[in-house]
Amino acid sequence: MDIQIWTYILVGVTFALYIGIAIWSRAGSTKDFYVAGGGVSPLANGMATAADWMSAASFISMAGLISFMGYDGSVFLMGWTGGYVLLALLLAPYLRKFGKFTVPDFIGDRYYSDVARTVAVICALFVSFTYVAGQMRGVGVVFSRFLEVDVEWGVVIGMVIVFFYAVLGGMKGITYTQVAQYCVLIFAFMVPAIFISLQMTGNPIPQLGFGGTLEDGTYLLDKLDGLHRELGFAEYTSGSKSMVDVFAITAALMIGTAGLPHVIVRFFTVPKVSDARLSGGYALILIAILYTTAPAVAAFARTNLIQTVSNTEYAMLPEWFGNWEKTGLLAWEDKNNDGVVQYVADKEANELTVDRDIMVLANPEIANLPNWVIALVAAGGLAAALSTAAGLLLVISTSVAHDLFKKQIKPDISEKGELVAARVAAAAAVVVAGYFGINPPDYVAPVVALAFGLAAASFFPAIIMGIFSKRMNKEGAIAGMISGLAITIFYILMYKFNMFGETTKDDWWFGVSPEGFGTIGMLVNFAVSLAVSSMFPAPPQDVQDLVEDIRIPKGAGAAVDH
Q: Which class is domain 3-550?
């Protein structure tokens, strides 16, 4: 069977599975909708967390970025894995002990202020919509190639699927759907990696193949460095980013992880605090399987791409090249009219344009793997993108329905009314997410990196000081969140989107890129919070007692809504 038939079969089966699970586990109450009833087992929650965490950025875009950036791409590996450890150890158990559904709920109650709650809702919406833009682009990329539709229609199809199981099932439906999606995405990522590692290095373990030798006896990375030198690119194993920027991006990704509302809320779906810790450990192991494999996949893809395409007559190129050309994500322009593909670092002479987001998806085709493996990767990419998109959409809907509507606008709303409001908000969020998927600001991973920067600059200081500082008051937290978010958004608009005139890297503040500026925004947040807090009275005694109680690791009950 050809690739498209296999894709229809595998994608159709997996989508039917997701929708079936959503119907089976549909939410019947707000507690089901927000925290899956609080009764999910640690292992299931660990798998769901891993699927929620490993978005299209992890599955589709990260290895693609590393394959082009080489050593510089390691910031994504270090930041995202380190960030998850920070979240699981430093924040999740305490937030779970507090027993609230959402991050704005925590901030609103901890800082005894509806203004603080509203600011937190605004921060959650900025972070979530930025993040979901990357997921919907990932969906569009997959569909545009494997279902042979326009990217726009690919995004629309993805919207319909997410709408169905996120709006119907809520967190309960999403949780058990994500368990299935983890199984699909990790199988889809590892199978081609094992195939290609065996094919290129003779070692079936990709992590070992990454440091192994090729048929001609040269080490894979030495071969890749040599290919890069021949074509004028920087050596694959050397970095071009400044140490300051590497540190800033890594820190922004790590700290941003700890402030991501759609991951934090996962720790409210288990019965006890100890289960939150255990599910965090399971998730870390499950995440590590993909993250330790990604550098190998990147190196395999880059080597195969260069050896297959560079200095090859266009007429002799394999079928996969034409397949991806049809999507517009791969393009060749014969500048010197010699019929040969010139793929070089010199922009004037280079004739090949490759969208980095296609590398993981195209890798099995480039390596000439069986059609079912190629289709499996498509199903895995969709599972990764849709699982995270659903989690983000739930955060958006709960922020609007629970933290804004019920807590402030209409406190006497019935549970049924709140559930309807949450579903309407989720439906509206799907439409907005689809718009961003059709009009994305960048590749998937950089867009997601911006979301992490916004989370680092807005949520993290308020959460960390809310847990560990009895003196932090509402005035300090509100001022800090607003200042951190505002300066980070301003910087991104100025240097990422050139909204205030053309800029270059030389204009960056402190040599920090927009992807890393969340670290600076976080420091601004901390500084403003502490300064403003010192000018106002300490929080009420009952709030200080609450902070003291959060840090006692026992006696935690179920998540409550009061």
A: mainly alpha
